[in-house]
Amino acid sequence: MLLAIDVGNTSTTMGLWQGDRLLARWRVGTSKKRMDAEYAVFLEQIFRQRNLSRPSAAVIASVVPPVEHELGRAIFELWGIEAFIVTPERAGLSVEIEHPQSVGADRLVNARAVLAYPNSHGRYIVVDFGTATTFDLVESPNRYLGGAIAPGPETAAEALAARAAMLPRFDLVPPPRGVIGKNTVEALQSGLVLGYAALVDGMVRRIKQEVGEALVVGTGGFARTLEGLSTELSLVDADLTLKGLRLIWEDRARA
C-alpha cells in the first residue's frame, strides 16, 4: 500500500495505491496553517471512513515546503513511515534546465508519468492546469527539457473578479452559444474557457514548431473542461501526477 501525495499551492491531492491499482483518491485545500497533529487526525479519519488499509510507504511531491514538512511528520507519527520526498535528484530524470532545483516537484512527477505512455515520437508535452498552467517538454528515455508557465484559469478568473467590481461570479464551463457571448457571464466564459483552449493550442503548436511532433497529455481539473475544445490535446489523464508518484517510488524500490 503506497500513499501518494501531491501538495499544490491551492489544493492537495492524495491517493492510495495497491500495486498499480488506485484504490482511492481525495483532494483537500492546501493550508500552511494546518499542523502535523491536524493532518494526522484528518488522515486517520479518511482511512477509517473509507475502510482503507494502512499504507506501508508514502511519497510526497510538494511546492509548499511547510505543508510537506507537517505532512511528513503526521505520516510518521500516525504509521511510523518515513515519507519519500521527491526532489530533482530523486525523480529519475535528466533535468536539463539552468537551475534544476527551481522546477516544481509536480512538473517532474508528471514528466516521469508520461514516459510510461507508448509514443512513436519519443517526445511528450504535459499541460497541467493548476494554480498555474504549465507546459513541459519531455523526451525518452528520461529527459526533462523545460517548459512554459502561465496563470491558471481559476487564478485568472479570481484576479479578474477582484479587480473588476461589476463582474459577476461564474462557472468555468464553455459558453452555451459560441464565442460571441450574449451577456456578461457568457462573455467571461468565452474568454476564459475558449480563450484557454486557444492558449493551449497556440503554445503547443509553437513548441512543436521548435522541437517536432509530440504526444500532448493534459492533467489537472480544468483539463476535462478543455477536452474536445482543444485540438492539440492528445489525451487527458486526471491521475497523471499520482501515477508519476507511484512510478518514482517503484523506481526507487528497484534501485
Count of DSSP strands: 11
- CATH class descriptor of the largest domain: Alpha Beta
Count of domains: 2
Instruction: Determine the CATH superfamily of the largest domain.
Output: ATPase, nucleotide binding domain
In helices, the fraction of residues equals 25-40%
CATH topology type of the largest domain: Nucleotidyltransferase, domain 5
What best-fitting shape do the alpha-carbon axes yield?
globular
Describe this structure in words.
Helices cover about 40% and strands about 25% of the residues. By secondary structure, it is α/β, with parallel strands linked by helices. It has two domains: about 1-85, Nucleotidyltransferase, domain 5 (2-Layer Sandwich); about 115-240, ATPase, nucleotide binding domain (Nucleotidyltransferase, domain 5, 2-Layer Sandwich), CATH 3.30.420. A six-stranded mixed β-sheet has the order 6-9-8-7-10-11, with helices on both faces. The protein is globular and about 55 Å long.
